[in-house]
Amino acid sequence: MVIRHKKGRDLDLTRIDKIVKEIEPADQNVIEEARKRTAQLDMPLRALRELHIIGEPLCGVTGSLHPAIDKKAILVMASDHGIARSGTSAHPQSVSGEMVKTFLRGGAGINVLSRQIGAHVIVVDNGYHSRYF
């Protein structure tokens, strides 16, 4: 399958389709074991809510109670929503452009955090009205 990208480039989805077909379901037994393990920790039940929500399925996907995450990426979705034009935004629309430039330059807070964990920052044009992409 080929999709025409809005900037005129064709996106070949053949490789993506192949990868998607090779994805196996998460191992529900491992997810249950991860839940049991976190229930045994010395803290209030589900105290690390988001980490449980992410971590337990990650165990099921990898099939391990101790999953290794060797390749990490942080997606930053850049978009404009029109609020700035209505005059109710705290910042003008130009701030979005400056932030995108800072993300791409590696100078934003998310870039600092990503370097600490060895993650790659990917800035995604998600309806952004500028020329920086």
Name its key features.
single chain, 133 residues, alpha+beta, 5,6-Dimethylbenzimidazole Phosphoribosyltransferase, Chain: A, domain 1, two-stranded antiparallel ribbon, two-stranded parallel ribbon, 6 helices, 4 strands, 45% helix, extended
Percentage of residues in helical conformation: 40-55%
The shape, in one word, is: extended
Q: List the secondary-structure elements in sequence, H or E.
A: EEHHHEHHHE
Average pLDDT taken over every residue = 85
Query: How many DSSP E strands?
Result: 4
Tell me the strand order in the biggest sheet. Answer: 1-2
How widely separated are the two ends?
24 Å
SS-based class: alpha+beta
Summarize the main sheet.
Answer: 2 strands, antiparallel
Number of domains: 2
Indicate the CATH architecture of the largest domain.
Answer: Orthogonal Bundle
Under CATH, the topology of the largest domain is which? 5,6-Dimethylbenzimidazole Phosphoribosyltransferase, Chain: A, domain 1
